[in-house]
Amino acid sequence: MKKLSARRRHPLAALVVLLFALAATGGLYAALAPQKAQAEDTSQQSLAIEQGKKLYSVGCSSCHGMAGQGSKTNGPSLVGVGSAAVDFQVGTGRMPAQQPGAQIPAKKVIYSQAEIDQLAAYIASLGPGPSIPTKDEYTPTSADSASRGGELFRTNCTQCHNYNGKGGALTNGKYAPALDGVSSKHMYEAMLTGPQSMPNFPDSTLTAQNKREIIAYLKATNSDNAASPGGLSLGSLGPVTEGLVGWVFGLGLLIVTAIWVAARTTKAKKS
Predict the structure, then answer these.
(1) Which structural domains are found in the chain, ordered by start?
(2) CB count, 10 Å around CB of 65?
(3) Do the annotations mark residue 60 as ligand-binding?
(4) Is 63 part of any known ligand binding site?
């Protein structure tokens, strides 16, 4: 009896029971807590999709179809365009379109950001596509070189947007919009999704850092403090505008000067 009593009162027994209880509690928490958080996230995502579907049925379905399948005459399919395309198109006011045309211009935004996120969640549920970038992805940092961005922009973008993003005319009534005043997020999303006539540049073509470098270049060249080392920028529209000004004003000045010299010479001979 004394031996049995001594075993029951062994000083390590309480420590073993305590350690077992702590391990069991930690295991249960690790097993259940993530599932609870995941369930809450899934529930919130489902609610956002449901709300986005309601907004879509009122403002978008007449052109893009009730299930986003699109129409040959009214609007393209939205299956697989991703949430980034929705955030860009609706966040810049291009969608819903005011009227059909060769190109849909940017205008006043009619949806709040929360509603845009809900629309984006619904469209993303129709098929996989580029997602809305995070702030770290589209915000230029000190490591993102504006000079390198200028090289990338001149290689990939100047054919349409001009050398510093002032835009330009395209064919069939389309045009490349000016990029001054456009937010970094929308620039990034445009490169990612390729809206309207613009090609898309996935990360396999332009990495996230490359995109930030291009944004850094545009922000530097279009800032209020940006210098014009060549003199008057003439709207920064390129050599055509500069050549036109040269011909009209330069040649005009030469003609006026020639007439003035000839008139002075004629008077001198008469006198």
Answers:
(1) 47-131 (1.10.760.10), 133-225 (1.10.760.10)
(2) 18
(3) yes
(4) yes
